[in-house]
């Protein structure tokens, strides 16, 4: 199994270039204004221009929290987003996918096996820990979930493990969860929104190696 890797919350060129150099499968751009990794559509377009048009380029994932159609359309007018990653209801996510004709990933907060979906109308599920009660955003809080909660789960579509991952724990997370793909943001940063190229390299290398066991 080759484990897929998404590096999320890119805000600067060095981070994007590290993703390209070390072979990330997806690059995530965050359009949630309360996130420290928020980028405007104009800034996101500048970053995306560093890899759009490349052969075998990474997928461009746009992250939105309970967006209106108008908010999504404004981004898509400027940024070459391939995939919409959504924090919203399952029904709303399916509707957005149909409306914009884009692949949709639905973020699913989990604390126990009973929270894992058994059916879906989106292309991929992002499985992560529930946000703390006092959090001001639904994801990107650096919280991990019990990785073995997904053992024995028959996912209705491809899925990706997120939340609290870093180069030091990603191998164990993959081993215990059986995740076919992993998503990291703060775990490869030297400060909020600023990626550490060496941490990006290590994360991708370790995740890939873990999938070959």
TrEMBL record:
Residues 5-205 form the N-(5'phosphoribosyl) anthranilate isomerase (PRAI) domain. Belongs to the TrpF family. It comes from Acetobacter conturbans. The keyword Isomerase applies. Pathway: Amino-acid biosynthesis; L-tryptophan biosynthesis; L-tryptophan from chorismate: step 3/5. Its EC number is 5.3.1.24. PANTHER family: N-(5'-PHOSPHORIBOSYL)ANTHRANILATE ISOMERASE. This is N-(5'-phosphoribosyl)anthranilate isomerase. CDD domains: PRAI. Keywords: Amino-acid biosynthesis, Aromatic amino acid biosynthesis, Isomerase, Tryptophan biosynthesis. The gene is trpF. It catalyses: N-(5-phospho-beta-D-ribosyl)anthranilate = 1-(2-carboxyphenylamino)-1-deoxy-D-ribulose 5-phosphate. One of its GO terms (molecular function) is isomerase activity. HAMAP family: PRAI.
């Amino acid at each position: 199994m080759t484990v897929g890797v998404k590096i999320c919350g890119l805000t600067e060129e060095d981070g994007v270039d590290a993703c390209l150099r070390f072979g990330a499968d997806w690059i995530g751009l965050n359009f949630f204004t309360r996130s420290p990794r928020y980028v405007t559509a104009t800034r996101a377009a500048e970053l995306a221009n560093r890899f759009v048009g490349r052969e075998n380029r990474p997928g461009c994932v746009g992250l939105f929290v309970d967006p209106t159609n108008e908010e999504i359309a404004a981004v898509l007018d400027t940024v070459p987003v391939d995939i919409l990653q959504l924090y919203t209801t399952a029904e709303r996510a399916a509707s957005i996918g149909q409306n914009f004709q884009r692949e949709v990933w639905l973020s699913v907060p989990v604390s126990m096996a009973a929270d894992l979906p058994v059916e879906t109308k989106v292309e991929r599920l992002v499985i992560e820990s529930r946000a703390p009660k006092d959090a001001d955003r639904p994801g990107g809080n650096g919280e991990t979930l019990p990785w073995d909660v997904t053992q024995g789960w028959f996912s209705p579509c491809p899925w990706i493990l997120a939340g609290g991952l870093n180069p030091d724990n990603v191998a164990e997370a993959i081993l215990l969860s059986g995740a076919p793909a992993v998503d990291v943001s703060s775990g490869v940063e030297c400060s909020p929104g600023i990626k550490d190229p060496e941490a990006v390299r290590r994360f991708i290398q370790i995740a890939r190696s873990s999938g070959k066991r």
